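Page 37, continued from 36.
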């Protein structure tokens, strides 16, 4: 990362040493910079290094307070499938608050302090879960009360996160040079995926082998998570602070790369009217929402099936979860090259068919045999991780391509809202169906999800991608 930035700016001074990095910027002496002000290259390098470290520790916090560890913790307390569905739907439903977070953030004085005010409470709230674990282990609190308390804290955490995320994205958009964004965020994502890949199996081993039981073991790693979450925010003090307030049109500076007057990015009524008239993007939004509904209808319950139905140890499940992160890390570059070659829509169709078949393959695992543990399950998780990475990449790319270049935030918000609503309803509805006495449990839910996933690919046939190629064009190119 630092080498790339140095290549882009050869006249910059030498890179800061670790003691210089660990010396916070004097934010009291210097007010936050305006987005139109030029940031010294040395401070950009220090900020990007700090942002990478922030991402690493934030990932450590998130992998403990979400996904397999939190699911296993609630199952150990006797949570139902419907409650697991609520747990999976909370982060997606909270996305609806991001426009409010963007509104409040744009009216603050400092990106950094707005993030601090939203993320510190969301991470310190998990101390109440620690207290609840202590009370449960000593017999002072019933298990179901701890389940409800954890769900409530998880909800509040994601509400604060949704309010703070737009400010973080806007802050990074100013700090990361345009010509380095792809490479920097690719490298930062590689570090976070590597953190997930290495830490999840180790933490799973600690929880599964803790002498006091898995609930107490989760409390131990939760202490580490809270410390890591606070430490990630500490690194933000080493980043150049930016104020959302920009000069008015009459006094605005010109952008050095375009020589055009900077304008407000806030959506106007005309932007929403243009969105409603854009049938191509509305079809994509329909596909995205339906796909997230179909995907989350069964995906949150694969781990439940392993932990509850098959009785696997959490150490095995965390090992498979880390395999998904490894699959994403290994295949993301391949999916990017393929999408550049044939377009994003063909990749979405091809990978969507693969992900539609995967729930049916789970039906072949009736017990934890040696073949299932060492061959079948690793292949399923590797395939899911690889295919999900392709969906994330290509859906984001096609969304950018079919959105207007000027003020695309309204379009992005519509797509995020559709995905969040569809995903939240899907996970909760899946949990509800799995609890019905005559439904057939999780195996029937997996079969239903496969059919629904395949059906949601139909709207993609009507989405027009500017760079997309049809089958006839690909065959003619290969023949030539």
């Amino acid at each position: 990362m630092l080498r790339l930035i140095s290549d882009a700016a050869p006249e910059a001074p030498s890179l800061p040493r670790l003691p210089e990095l660990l010396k916070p910027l004097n934010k009291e002496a210097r007010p936050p910079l305006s987005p139109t002000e030029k940031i010294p290259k040395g401070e950009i390098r220090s900020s990007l290094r700090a942002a990478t470290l922030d991402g690493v520790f934030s990932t450590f916090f998130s992998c403990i307070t979400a996904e397999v560890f939190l699911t296993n913790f609630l199952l150990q307390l006797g949570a139902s499938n419907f409650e697991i569905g609520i747990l999976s739907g909370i982060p997606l439903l909270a996305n609806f608050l991001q426009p409010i977070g963007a509104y409040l953030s744009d009216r603050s004085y400092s990106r950094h302090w707005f993030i601090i005010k939203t993320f510190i409470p969301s991470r310190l709230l998990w101390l109440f879960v620690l207290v609840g674990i202590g009370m449960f282990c000593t017999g002072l609190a019933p298990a179901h009360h701890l389940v409800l308390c954890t769900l409530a804290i998880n909800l509040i955490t994601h509400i604060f996160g949704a309010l703070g995320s737009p400010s973080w994205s806007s802050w990074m958009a100013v700090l990361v040079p345009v010509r380095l964004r792809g490479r920097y965020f690719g490298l930062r994502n590689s570090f976070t995926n590597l953190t997930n890949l290495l830490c999840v199996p180790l933490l799973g081993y600690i929880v599964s082998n803790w002498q006091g039981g898995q609930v107490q073991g989760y409390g131990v790693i939760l202490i580490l998570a809270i410390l890591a979450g606070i430490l990630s925010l500490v690194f933000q003090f080493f980043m150049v602070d930016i104020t959302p307030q920009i000069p008015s049109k009459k006094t605005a500076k010109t952008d050095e790369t375009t020589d055009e007057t900077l304008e407000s990015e806030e959506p106007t009524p005309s932007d929403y009217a243009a969105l409603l008239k854009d049938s191509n993007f509305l079809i994509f939004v329909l596909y995205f929402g339906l796909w997230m509904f179909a995907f989350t209808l069964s995906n949150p319950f694969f781990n439940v099936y392993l932990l509850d139905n098959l009785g696997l140890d959490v150490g095995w499940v965390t090992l498979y979860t880390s395999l998904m992160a490894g699959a994403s890390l290994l295949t993301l570059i391949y999916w990017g090259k393929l999408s550049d070659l044939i377009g994003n829509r063909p990749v979405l169709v091809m990978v969507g068919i693969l992900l539609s078949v995967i729930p049916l393959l789970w039906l072949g695992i009736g017990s934890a045999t040696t073949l299932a543990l060492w061959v079948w399950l690793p292949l399923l998780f590797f395939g899911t991780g690889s295919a999900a990475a392709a969906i994330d990449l290509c859906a984001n790319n096609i969304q950018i391509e079919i959105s207007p270049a000027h003020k695309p935030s309204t379009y992005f918000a519509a797509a995020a809202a559709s995905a969040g609503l569809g995903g939240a309803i899907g996970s909760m509805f899946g949990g509800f169906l799995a609890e019905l006495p005559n439904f057939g449990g999780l195996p029937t839910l997996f079969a239903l999800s496969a059919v629904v996933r395949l059906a949601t690919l139909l709207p993609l046939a009507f989405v027009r991608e500017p760079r997309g190629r049809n089958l006839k064009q690909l065959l003619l190119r290969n023949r030539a």
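The CA atoms of residues 98 and 165 lie 7 Å apart. Flag for discussion at group meeting. The longest helix spans residues 143-175.
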